[in-house]
């Protein structure tokens, strides 16, 4: 792997051993009677990051965000921002603001009053206050709707009012709890790009919570995956997707096929796994991170888009191949999803790009096919 390219360090400060994180969460826990909502979480988040906390409902995301905002006190551990310990600092004195899942707009106030509400505690000249409100509205492109009330806005516009109100005090860190969850799918995708643009313009660190893995993948500089109060992996979207540490993560982020098996040999940078589910031995390139040894029980994880499907027997070196029958086929226009039943009874999900008009169409229900993938397409997981 080698040392990171210095040109990249500006964009990827977490790779720079000398970079100072802006937010440091150190061994933070939060217990409620009968439940540990957040369990010894440690994270280092850098200025300008769009950092995602993802995980199933109830895994502790909101509780962690509330502790950063100061609405909840850690039962253990420390939170610092720009080197200052936050544990005993009340919410309004932290360089942090939070945008709530519900937006919590005031229905009786106009858009501009809602946005200006963020400045209410600040001793500003009326003219300056007006300018700040105008600038915030312009930033989210709501300048022309300043006099409307929330019920006269679309869902996307309400979201932008909430964002402008949260940013108007120029917090160093903005916390967003499920910022797009109130929007429908199409609007959510469009709003993702807006949110990224605004974040890029203002340069504020965003820490956002989502249970939607696609949203995290699309937006985040880095993702922390949480499970039952713990952070179980932190990485860039590509790292999490390509190198998930566990089956849980591989399954939570995207779709993955797993073959359970036993390591038979580790040699020359390759792992051989005997798998009854695959009907034989699988060859996987060794990643070098977490070493496996012969005799160990493992799971070979393989993403649907890394599998090729063909009627003819595939040829090639270091190729894994399994025979099967097309059990289900979903034509999605730009791609097709195949469910291939293999002789062991294992059903594989395969994603085919519809690059050629005829070739893909020639594979149909009940056809006998081969699925194949290279040794470097799969990874070996130990848990
Ligand atoms: P998420 O945002 O990931 O869905 P939460 O942080 O809201 O999860 O909740 C994590 C766990 O802590 C859940 O089991 C939840 O029921 C519990 N919890 C959260 N807030 C409280 C509270 N104020 N009192 C008691 N239990 C709570
Ligand atoms: Mg929540």
**Morphology call:** elongated
Bound molecules: adenosine-5'-diphosphate, magnesium ion
C-alpha termini separation: 25 Å
Q: Give the CATH superfamily of the largest domain.
A: P-loop containing nucleotide triphosphate hydrolases
Order of helices and strands: HEEEHEEEHHHEHEHEEHHEEEEEEEEEE
Radius of gyration: 25 Å
Distinct helical segment count: 9
Overall average residue pLDDT: 91
Write down the CATH class of the largest domain: Alpha Beta
Give the strand line-up of the largest sheet: 6-7-8-3-9-10
The amount of helix comes to: 10-25%
Category by helix and strand content: alpha+beta
Number of domains: 2
What percentage of amino acids are in beta strands?
25-35%
What would CATH call the architecture of the largest domain? Answer: 3-Layer(aba) Sandwich
CATH fold descriptor of the largest domain = Rossmann fold
Q: What does it look like?
A:
With 383 residues, the chain is an alpha+beta fold. It folds into two domains: 20-248, Rossmann fold (3-Layer(aba) Sandwich), CATH 3.40.50.300; 255-381, Nucleic acid-binding proteins (OB fold (Dihydrolipoamide Acetyltransferase, E2P)), CATH 2.40.50.140. The chain has helices at 6-9, 61-69, 111-116, 126-139, 155-167, 185-202, 213-219, 237-242, 247-252; strands spanning 23-32, 35-45, 50-54, 76-81, 84-85, 96-99, 173-177, 205-210, 222-227, 230-235, 257-267, 270-275, 280-285, 297-302, 308-310, 319-331, 335-341, 347-353, 368-374, 378-381. A hairpin with a 2-residue loop joins strand 4 and strand 5. It is elongated. The relative contact order is 0.11. The mean pLDDT is 91. The structure holds adenosine-5'-diphosphate (ADP) and magnesium ion. The site of adenosine-5'-diphosphate (ADP) has 11 residues, from strand 2 and helix 2.
